[in-house]
Design goal:
- With 313 residues, the chain is an alpha/beta fold.
- The protein has a domain of 71 residues.
- 40% of the residues lie in helices and 22% in strands.
- The strands form three sheets. Strands 6-7-8-3-9-10 form a six-stranded mixed sheet, with helices on both faces.
- The longest helix has 22 residues.
- The N and C termini lie far apart (99 Å).
Length: 313
């Protein structure tokens, strides 16, 4: 026995357990994704002035984190996501995944580590949902690779994780919007990625399906240690589910931080061009609502519109 009354084997097990927890803690503290001063410019030709520019943007994301890239249309959200995915080469800066520059990875390795859920997943042929999810196993096979038992099991497990196992034999073109989104997400999970990227995943979903999807993403991030990046213009969803928010506007990154740090009323009103109220919810997360305009200003606007119509007549 030691002086503290613990046997040497027991003490060794305790030390090993503490070291294991410390290792997990350090791993969680290290950034899985590092976006370092990346910028981009769209131009019809090399000699013409760019039609859109995304200024230098930086942020980090850890495993089990959900980060929302937030902003109105044409703010640069999808451009930033494509650079994170490795589909676009930054004009400046770099994107690192576990310390490796994403653009330096070959296509196969990149597809094994990064899964992208686009707004629209084109259907080359009317596949059944189970077959569609199996496409996520392609990065692990050879050309003309036929799925083996492991691939089939992983695809079935991916469908189960999104609550869509009952859809396996349904044709993709016969699914509702919410069902199709779940199957598309399952295909991404079948890739067994480290980084899960979603471009406006709630765009064509009703509010119930939107909340269900974000709750599922949070749970998947926690259970599977994914790092999840979601492009969205939905203020309420980002506030409720994101660990961090990257706020973009007209190609500029205005702020990065927790929802509580980013959701300042004057800033959001400037970005989204609407009168807003921001208050803290019960869990400390901000809640955003549209502030009603004064009745007199509404009346003036109505009068202006009426005068405009009479002038046109």
């Amino acid at each position: 026995m030691t002086a503290a009354g613990t046997s040497e084997p027991g003490r060794a097990e305790h030390v090993a357990s503490m070291e294991s927890r410390d290792t997990r803690s350090r791993a969680a503290d290290v950034a899985r994704l590092a976006v370092e001063q990346v910028s981009y410019a769209y131009s019809p030709t090399r000699r013409q002035i760019p039609t859109f520019t995304l200024s230098a943007t930086s942020f980090q994301a850890r495993q089990r984190e959900l980060v929302a890239i937030l902003g109105p249309n044409a703010s640069g959200k999808s451009t930033l996501l494509q650079m994170i995915a490795g589909a676009l080469a930054p004009l400046s800066g770099r994107v690192l995944l576990d310390g490796a520059e994403i653009r330096s990875l070959d296509g196969r390795t990149r597809a094994q580590r990064i899964a992208v859920v686009q707004q629209h997943a084109p259907l080359v042929f009317p596949a059944r949902a189970g077959e569609f999810v199996l496409q996520g196993r392609h990065p692990y096979g050879r050309k003309l690779h036929l799925p083996n038992d492991e691939d089939v099991n992983l695809a079935q497990n991916a469908l189960a994780q999104v609550g869509a196992e009952h859809l396996a034999d349904r044709r993709m073109d016969q699914l509702s919007g919410g069902e199709k989104q779940r199957v598309i997400l399952a295909r991404a999970l079948a890739q067994q990625p480290l980084l899960l990227l979603l471009d406006e995943p709630t765009l064509h979903l009703d509010i119930g399906a939107q909340v269900e999807l974000l709750e599922r993403l949070r749970r998947l991030a926690e259970e599977n240690r994914y790092t999840v990046i979601v492009v969205t213009h939905e203020l309420g969803l980002a506030a409720e589910f994101a660990d961090q928010v990257v706020l973009l506007h007209e190609g500029k990154c205005l702020r990065v931080g927790t929802p509580a740090a980013v959701y300042q009323r004057e800033l959001l009103e400037q970005v989204f061009e609407a009168p807003l109220d921001v208050e803290a919810g019960p869990a400390g997360r901000p809640r955003v609502s549209l502030r009603p305009r004064p009745a007199d200003s509404v009346g003036l606007e109505s009068a202006d519109r009426a005068r405009g119509r009479s002038t046109q007549v």
